[in-house]
Amino acid sequence: MRNFLFFVGGILLLFSCATPQEDTTVSTLSQAALPDLISIRDLPDSVQPISISIAEVPPPLRIKIPTRSAGSYSHINESGSLTRVNLEIPVSQNLPYLTDENDQVVRDVAGKPYIRGDGGVSQFKNYSTDNGLALDAVNSAILDSRGHLWFATNGGGVSRFDGIAFTNYTTSQGLAGNSVRVALEDSKGILWFGTVGGGVSRYDGYVFTNYTTSNGLGDDAILSIMEDSEGNIWFGTYGGGASKFDGKSFTTFTTAEGLADDVVISIAQDHSGNLWFGTNGGGASRYDGNTFTTFTVTEGLSSNRIRSIKVDHSGIIWFGTIGGGVSRFDGQNFKSLGHEDGLASLVVRNIAETRDGILWFATENGASKYDGTHMTTYTREQGLASNSILDVVIDANGKLWFCTEGGGVSRFDGGSFTNFTTSQGLGGNIVLSTVEDKEGNLWFGTAGGGLSRFDGEKFTSYTATQGLAGEIVSSSHRDQNDNLWFGTGGGGVSMYDGEAFTTYTTAQGLAANEVYNINEDARGNLWFGTDGGGVSKYDGEAFTTYTSQHGLAGDVILGIAEDDYRKLWFGAADGGLTRFDGLAFTNFSSAQGLADNAVIRLVKDAQGNLWIGTENGLSILSAEKIKQIETVIKLDDYKPILEDSVSLFQNFTTNDGLPDNVILQITELPNGKMAVGTNLGIAVFDGAKEGKPLDSLRNIEIFNSETGFPVKDLVDGQNGMYVDQKGILWAGTGNNKTALVRFDYNKLKRNHTAPSVLIKELRLNEEVISWHSLSKQYEAISTNTFPRTIDELIVYGKELSNTERAELQDKHKGIDFESISSFFTLPQKLVLPYKNNDINIDFGTDELSKPFLVEYQYMLDGYDENWSPILRKTTANFGNIQEGKYTFKVKARFTGPVDSGAGEWTEPISYSFEVSPPPYRTWWAYLIYGLLFISLIYPISIYQRNQVIKAENERTKERELAHAKAIEVAYTELASTHENLKDTQAQLLHSEKMASLGELMAGIAHEIQNPLNFVNNFSEVTNELVKEIKEERARPDEERDKELEDDILEDIESNLEKITKHGKRAGAIVKGMLQHSRSGKGSKEPTNLNMLADEYLRLSYHGLRAKDSSFNSDFEMDFDSDLPLIPMVSQDMGRVLLNLFNNAFYAVNEQKKEMGEDYKPLVAVQTSKVEMGKDKQGIQLKVTDNGKGIPKAILEKVFQPFFTTKPTGQGTGLGLSLSYDIIKAHYGEIRVESIEGKGTTFTINLYISPANPS
């Protein structure tokens, strides 16, 4: 009885007031709802899970893989219909084999065929005349020092490519011929173009200078160009031998001087300084500066027709031949590479070497890559524009560019991505699931095409005709016994043991025949997530099914995972996340912070974190949180976990860098990075590091079509994204073109250098200008006008007539510049007239393959104060530029895959120009204005003076009379207005005081209510105890319990002490208020500021709570206990403090209404001693809130009378004004600091001895 009364008293005490009784700050953590906990043992017997033994139901159907077409069986298809299926031998399709010139399969010495490329479609990007290339027959290419590619075409001149557009040059611009065989950039940045029949063109960025046999060249058909270590340019000709140009004259070498043949197709210089000449039948000639030494098939060359020569980084010389494949010469011996080594063709037209020592051979039957041991060939089937490759060049970031004979140019971004479709033998283009068997074969489950087994060389298909349960295979798993399990879209689940498929359906106890997920726990039990049937556990002997009726979050189970504590987690598409410990289900949803209740995928990483893919973002349940959950015994144990400052779930969306919020696949890469598959491709980012929390997506890399990779939307089947034992990522996409993606992350081509920024063009008011046509150097001469001609042809598509040119010059009259830069026609030291003050500046980088991933920032010094926002556009526009000197600056960074440091911002490059003032603002215009002003000011002033004197004399009497009358009227009106203003001010002051008094009274009532509640509650309990002791004493002496009576008397005594204590507390509160009211007569008395601030802070808080029960906020007090007593009018100072506290609580309450439950409102009050001048001590009080802050534009107005930021009717605007006056009356100061969006701090400084503070 006694214990029950104490329990009731405690309950009454808890509910006696709406706020806590202790003087602690109120917690503002998000009060997440507790998860649902359903114990299986608490369920009625009628809904307990049921186990179905395999021994008690029809046996599962087992179909052995047929080795010949024979027999049939009854099969239930995805639609549920029973059909008869004829058994057939599995069908296989080999990956495309490499074939030779005679269309015969190329095999190695062991007879094994070579597969083309990586078996599928590789990552090629093709360019043709449709993209602006001059011609699709491209003989060769070079990369210049500005990072641009020049393509020599077989009839269309040359094309320059900057990553975005092609610029074409032909004989119209001065090129020696339109059929250009070869190109070179020398050490001075000069370009050389060898033509077929037109000789050689030298291009310095301004003009083409042409050389032919008339200048000493050996022949006008140029087949090769090379610069030696001394700066001489060598030209290999068709019949004229080799010509050396030293900058002044030509020296020609032919067979007469010892050259092997006069048709020189290739030239190279080895590490010893020797020159090598490849000829069209005479072999290779080595020239040491004095004599020629010739090597032929007799010395070991594979052919005497040498098409190309390459000296690799180690000094080995490689010869590409016509008909003999490749010959390797180490200085002593030759070694040949041919078809048996995997070479695509025996006609090798060019050779290139990458930074990592890989050799590429351009052949007439594709491009062959050689790593020193293995050859891989890429052809049209892998994405090349044509198999006939004439040249290969490597850009600054390792991308390969192949020049083809009729197909244009192909760019190869590396072998990291390969796509497989039904063309390569895949059963269907939509791959839903993947699993690897013990032999390393990959099994791909498709949407309608059954299973495809891939052994690296061929795809073998399995469907119902081989015993598979269905054609839609949405899940797959390899168990501990190496059996493969395949869940279908309506036919149940099939187990493959290496010989046969054994199918389990609802007839054997499976929850449903649509199986979306298969997982195996540490005990060897298999768990099947189904569509609508919940989850089934199979222990090898029986199926046990669990549904939402037993506690699952939903019955459509898409994800299953087991944590490090052997607890199972289920992701439901229709209910959230479920944890199952074998005895009870615990369900988590968005109410506990999950990103979304539609859970699609569950994966546990190596660190024990649970990754949860939903329809609205990625959620991560950390290993630490899982560990905390493991300690939960009862539901209330979740409260500290949910109220922790670290959220239960860490959520990530597109706002954090994900390409899309629909998370369909998750898998862990061997390097610890996490791959997340979405509706918009794959995101790869740093995963959890051991011992460190995963608090953000770091170093995220996006792979999709928008970033230039062959990946589109990911599929939503189990293991639609899968990492095999070699570390290769396989991903099924929802696109027929990309289909199955093979992603070797380690082979990803990364930019290893930051981009170089270039300013390309300057336009005026969006008009492209031929700057050479405006140049003064052409006004006095009529020759050497090629720069002007080239410029006009590029800008206007034609050479201007003299009339058109004169009109252009007249239109832009007044523009002045000293010179024009080469290659990009930018006027230097440009001065623009004021009428041309709208300019457009085009810029770019040397990023050729993915210029759309380059970000820029620019600014115009003298026009802009800050850098522009980060942009991907390559044009800056500036209008209405005032006169002055300006410098344009631009910087860039590459946002695609990079090596360390290559993704940083580049150093800005600049371009300076000047704008002249308009004629009316020039110095001579201002001089004229001054002279005119001086010449007119004297006569005008004399005239005006006389007129003024005359008018004033006439109006003096009238003005004086009117003035006197006006003063009398104004004085009367002013007196009346002054009285009205005094009445209005008094009313407003009274309203402000009454408002403060109301809030004070609400807080005081709350403060008194608390101890009165204690008195009432303990009085009731004591009355009950008195009744109980009376009952006990009414018993006979022999039945009375003396010990019980003593206990009751002790409890009564204790309760009376508490009643006395809380009664005194109420009295103290009333006494304090009376003291404050008596001290409000204007006299200053020594006052404890800490106690005053503490009291009014609580009165303000409880007063606001009384007006609005939904109001809640934390408050903190940091008081200096050593503060002395300060002379002050405590009632006035209390009004100041109450106003500041009310404003602070109002600010955080408004911020909480906007921010929601994640926001934690806080008001902090601090007191301290401060120095307030020489030998002057003071105290300081700060009131800080974390509300929305005060805008900078109105911060200085807050102390003005009638100024308020509150809505109409919620404030008079006098509170801070009165506070300011009160502080000034105390010889103190009050100031405010605020950061918009962060919060506000009011600071009060008071002198300790303010008698004479100055």
Automatic annotation (TrEMBL):
<dbReference type="GO" id="GO:0000155">
    <property type="term" value="F:phosphorelay sensor kinase activity"/>
</dbReference>
<dbReference type="InterPro" id="IPR005467">
    <property type="entry name" value="His_kinase_dom"/>
</dbReference>
<dbReference type="InterPro" id="IPR015943">
    <property type="entry name" value="WD40/YVTN_repeat-like_dom_sf"/>
</dbReference>
<feature type="domain" description="Histidine kinase">
    <location>
        <begin position="1003"/>
        <end position="1250"/>
    </location>
</feature>
<dbReference type="InterPro" id="IPR011110">
    <property type="entry name" value="Reg_prop"/>
</dbReference>
<dbReference type="Pfam" id="PF02518">
    <property type="entry name" value="HATPase_c"/>
</dbReference>
<dbReference type="InterPro" id="IPR036890">
    <property type="entry name" value="HATPase_C_sf"/>
</dbReference>
<dbReference type="Pfam" id="PF07495">
    <property type="entry name" value="Y_Y_Y"/>
</dbReference>
<dbReference type="InterPro" id="IPR036097">
    <property type="entry name" value="HisK_dim/P_sf"/>
</dbReference>
<dbReference type="InterPro" id="IPR011123">
    <property type="entry name" value="Y_Y_Y"/>
</dbReference>
<dbReference type="InterPro" id="IPR003594">
    <property type="entry name" value="HATPase_dom"/>
</dbReference>
<dbReference type="InterPro" id="IPR013783">
    <property type="entry name" value="Ig-like_fold"/>
</dbReference>
<keyword id="KW-0732">Signal</keyword>
<protein>
    <recommendedName>
        <fullName>histidine kinase</fullName>
        <ecNumber>2.7.13.3</ecNumber>
    </recommendedName>
</protein>
<dbReference type="Pfam" id="PF07494">
    <property type="entry name" value="Reg_prop"/>
</dbReference>
<dbReference type="InterPro" id="IPR003661">
    <property type="entry name" value="HisK_dim/P_dom"/>
</dbReference>
<feature type="signal peptide">
    <location>
        <begin position="1"/>
        <end position="20"/>
    </location>
</feature>
<keyword id="KW-0597">Phosphoprotein</keyword>
<dbReference type="InterPro" id="IPR004358">
    <property type="entry name" value="Sig_transdc_His_kin-like_C"/>
</dbReference>
